[in-house]
Amino acid sequence: LVPLVDHLAAWKLLPNVSAWVLHTVERGYRIQFGTKPPPFNGVSPTLVGPEQGLVMEQEVATLLRKEAIEVVPPHERESGFYSRYFIVPKKDGGLRPILDLRLLNRSVKRLKFKMLTIRQVVSQIRSEDWFVTIDLKDAYFHVSILPHHRKFLRFAFRGEAYQYRVLPFGLALSPRTFTKCVDAALAPLRLQGIRILNYIDDWLILAQSEMEAVRHRDVILAHMKALGLRLNAKKSVLSPLQRTTYLGVLWVSTTMRARLSPARIESILTAVKRVKEGRSLTVKQFQQLLGLMAAASNVIPFGLLYMKPLQWWLKTKGFSPRGNPLRMIRIMRRCLRALDMWRKPWFLSQGPVLGAPCRRVTLAMDASLTGWGAVMSGHPARGLWSGHQLTWHINCLEMLAVFRALKHFLPDLRDRHVLVRTDNTSVVSYINHQGGLRSRPLYKLAHQILVWSQDKLLSLRAVYVPGHLNLGADILSRQGPRPGEWMLHPEVVKQIWRVFGPAQVDLFATREKRNVPS
Predict the structure, then answer these.
(1) Domain assignment present for 203
(2) Which domain holds residue 127?
(3) Cα distances (angstroms) measured from residue 147 to each of 31, 98, 216
(4) How many alpha carbons fall within 13 Å on the CB side of residue 240?
(5) Tens of pLDDT along 193-246?
(6) Sign of the CA dihedral 396, 397, 398, 400?
(7) With helix as H, strand as E and coil as C, how does 440-456 read?
(8) 243 lies in some domain
């Protein structure tokens, strides 16, 4: 490994690079502890069986060859913090050693940062784009650890003690640390107009022509070399294409569609096949299945909606992610019905339309205990609740109001992106998360709306708007206003007066609605 510090001069030339990034490149990463660093916990050796021992030997030899770890001097062994390795099966049938840093992570700060999302990739792709994918080799190993913090990243195996010299996998802040360094590295490229997206060590170059993609690829590769970032040529696709697999998703710019990669579809189908009536699965196995479904729902438009039936069934069985992971749950027929959609390849092959929505149609909503109101492009709609609806919870009335308004304005909303503005946070959550697990009646209403909208709207999202900024819909829901009771919003009045000067006469009907002082 060639440390980034050998390329420090190039890092210092980056525009607006933070002092934190330069310090990390020059001296190594200082682990950001939230509490006092953990005390010495004894030399805890990694103990494994014969087959796993061979895997560990290969892992240690590889890490030593890459200079990712170093042997701890004998006089320092009785200090620092030791973690153990455990062995997990690979997808291809092999075994993978993983350093268990969970105890150390309890002492590390919880710092938020933004990583690239599937939704962001969807919005960035343009029609007929060309793609190049770049994979970095040993991503985290680019970043050194501050020498006197390496003692917290120790492990022991077969009588020898080792410590990490570079960022290890499993440290809670490794993704954040590496991403901040990469973001700084890519900043000058983005200033040049190069479109590049990065998720840890996976990068995607977007260009409007094949020649532009080649040119930008060459600029990026030269820039990487100058900064000491190493290319994994085997996993990169350097020849421009108009369809590519990135983050487990197949992206096609000629059709402007995306869907899960065949490998991910197959992994979901395989996991669902294990769920058979009369069989029992552990809580951990159900968690893994839910994890696959949740990740797929970033791509499948109504994935979250068809994930909720399984979650509701598990809730009736006392399922808790924090519970005993080895507790067995017996599979019933209702569980199988909840997974019906996830057995269908056509459902798993669905995906979003690529590109940012050029415009959303906005629908302002509100409901009261007596009725509902909505405003779309200045056009009002309203109605009264009848019979048993008068006894409903206000959250359910707010959700029903959304349904009534969508149906009323459907001729203008069909095949459009729709944004609902409401002052009810539960409605926002249940629409955006395609249901919920707190209120069964509210979930059923949200389910009806979303199923109804599937073949009518391009998308349906909701956003929270405080009640005082949603006055039109609020007044309509209370069966107002009386003729002549409308008024301009005071902030709008101020903007008009700044341009044209204050008005002398207010022609609005009542004293309560005037903007001109008497």
Answers:
(1) yes
(2) 118-140+173-253
(3) 11, 22, 37
(4) 18
(5) 999 999 999 999 999 999 999 999 999 999 999 999 999 999 999 999 999 999
(6) positive
(7) HHHHHHHHHHHHHHCCC
(8) yes
Count CB atoms within 10 A of the CB of residue 44: 15
Q: What angle do CA 232, 233, 235 make, to 5 degrees?
A: 75
Q: What is the Cα–Cα distance from 227 to 14, expressed in whole angstroms?
A: 10
What would the mean pLDDT of 454-472 be, rounded to a whole number? 81
In sequence order, what are the residues at sequence separation of 6 or more whose Cβ sits closer than 8 angstroms to the Cβ of residue 328? Answer: 280, 281, 282
Assess whether 23 and 156 both reside in one domain: yes
Looking at residue 345, its pLDDT comes to 95
Q: What total of structural domains would you count in the chain?
A: 4
pTM of this structure: 0.85
Task: Using DSSP, state whether 24 is helix, strand or coil.
Answer: helix
DSSP state of 393: -
* 135 lies in some domain: yes
Maximum Cα interatomic distance, the chain, rounded to a whole number of Å? 92
Per-position DSSP letters for 288-327, written without gaps between them? HHHHHHHHHTTTSTTTTTTTHHHHHHHHHTT--TTS-TT-
Sequence length of the chain is 518
Q: Which residue has the tokens 């459907």?
A: 410
Reduced to 3 states (helix: H, G, I; strand: E, B; else coil), residue 168 is coil
* 119 contacts: CB under 8 Å, gap ≥ 6: 298
> What is the rounded distance in angstroms from the CA atom of residue 419 to the CA atom of residue 463?
7
The DSSP result for 80-131, as a single string, is S-B-EEEEEE-TTS-EEEEEE-HHHHTTB---------HHHHHHH--TT-EE
Q: Do 21 and 63 reside in the same domain of the chain? A: yes
Q: Does residue 305 sit in the same domain as residue 401?
A: no
Q: Are residues 27 and 73 in the same domain?
A: yes
Distance, CA of 206 to chain centre? 21
Last residue of a domain, one of 235, 253, 271: 253
Residue 508, CA atoms < 13 Å, CB-side half-sphere: 17
CA distance 296 to 278: 27
Relative to beta strand 95-100, strand 130-135 is unpaired
Amino acid 322: pLDDT: 81
Residue pair 410/399 in contact by the 8 Å Cβ criterion: no
Indicate if 13 and 158 belong to the same structural domain: yes
| pLDDT tens-digit map of 337-369 | 999 999 999 999 999 999 987 778 999 988 888
Q: Which two tokens stand for residue 450?
A: 């979303």
